[in-house]
Amino acid sequence: MSANIEDSISTKELYKQYNWFSEKFPPVVQNAYDNFFSENFKLEFIGLSKNINCLLKDEYCFVTKIKIDQEYDMFFRLTEKVLDIILSKILGKSNKKFNINNISELEAKIITTFNGEMYDILKQYINQPDSTQIKRTNFDMIHLTFILKDLDENVKDTGKFIVTLPFALLSPEMIESADDKFTKDDFTQSEVSGKITIGKTRFSMYDLKNLEKEDVVVFEDSDLESLSLNILGEEMTINVNPNMDLLVPDNENNFGGNDIMPESKNLWDSIEVDMIGELDSVKISLGDLKSIEKGLVVDIASLYNNNVTLKVEGKPIAEGSLVIVNDRYGVKITEIIAGNDNISSDQSSDISDENVNEDESYESEQANEEEYNDSEEVYNEGKESEEGEEDFDYSDFELEDENL
Fold first, then answer.
1. Range of the domain at 250
2. Rounded Cα–Cα distance for residues 205 and 207 (Å)
3. Residues 80 and 229 in one domain
4. Number of domains in the chain
5. d(CA 246, CA 304)
6. What angle do CA 267, 269, 273 make, to 5 degrees?
């Protein structure tokens, strides 16, 4: 029995019991605040939990512990924000920032008295303890969390008020469906949307810029007997029967990202990127999806409308129809999506401009260096003359006009 204490309140049980807690306790807690604090606050029930740590992260609380008997306790926790809201309303707003560590005896007395009143109201829902039961642990406590706010619209702050009850002393009702329950077979005709990827290949920027209609892109990373299906972020493999009517001859217009790039191309043209082929979104029934998960081989014609989008880094660059080239899937391009070729040209132009700027910068540095050398020579010439050494005639190194 003690080995199962930690799991004595399962999450599934809480789901079934939530309505009972939400119907019983919020009205009682709201009435307690209204009677004690003269209808100044609004409370909203937001959570039912068996873990207090997820409710109070980095928050200080004023805690009142009230003993039910020798074995069981009830707790009331008011966060620092709630204390500030309540005490500011009851005693007036202080000029100093509220600090829970500096709470006065009067303020503590007000909150403790209120929690005592709350206990007297809530104990009607608490069963009498069974003296034969073992001592329960904190895992058997259930935490009801409320958000409190001032009814004054000018006060924007909110805080948490948490009531902790011993679950063993409660008798929550569980919700059971009165009607027939659904079965898995009731949803076999329901449909979900998914994306099918036919393959991937590496492409140079040079080849990407030169894609044209009627070109055929071959996906080196593809398999005629399988495709990749993505549903809600989950990937799975579809076993398919390829339609060989899609077979086209392998000719020189095919692109696979492996064509030899002409010499003297710039750095931009040599960059390679991954290109994928993706079919239009498809709808698959849950019945078919279940069959696919079991490894059933399906007819590829039932999964697509033969329209494929070519994408690079998630961005569409072209569209086409599905084909088969040798033992790989491919796409025969029917449309180049506007803007992508211009982007490539602009980016290529940017890199070329950078090269031009580098050349201009290099020429400028050369000119500056020559000016510096000329200045240094004039300086040395004067220095050597002063020391009486032989003067050099620099005119000997000047080029004649006819040599230019």
1. 189-345
2. 5
3. no
4. 2
5. 13
6. 105
| 225, 124: one domain | no
- Please choose, from the candidates 244, 229, 236, 308, the residue with its C-alpha nearest in 3D space to the C-alpha of residue 275: 308
Classify residue 286 as exposed, middle or buried by CB count within 10 Å of its CB (0-12, 13-18, 19+). middle
- Coil vs helix vs strand at 55: coil
CA atoms within 13 Å, Cβ hemisphere of 48: 20
Instruction: Determine the 3-state secondary structure of 194 from DSSP.
Output: strand
Report pLDDT digits (tens) over 224-273.
888 888 888 888 888 888 878 788 876 645 555 545 555 556 777 888 89
pTM of the predicted model, to two decimals? Answer: 0.47
256 plus 195 within the same structural domain: yes
Asked whether residue 143 falls in the same domain as residue 245, the answer is: no
- Chain-centroid distance of CA 241 in Å reads 36
Answer yes or no: is 49 within a domain. Answer: yes
Give the C-alpha separation, 92 to 69, whole Å: 37
Provide the CATH number for the domain around residue 154.
3.40.1550.10
- Given 119, 137, 169, which residue is the final one in a domain? 169
Rounded Cα–Cα distance for residues 244 and 300 (Å): 11
Q: Residue 210, exposed/middle/buried by CB under 10 A (0-12, 13-18, 19+)?
A: middle
| Residue 282 to residue 311: CA distance in whole angstroms | 17
Burial label for 37, CB within 10 Å (0-12, 13-18, 19+), is middle
pLDDT, the chain, mean: 77
Within a domain: 317: yes
Whole-number Å distance between alpha carbons of 73 and 375 = 94
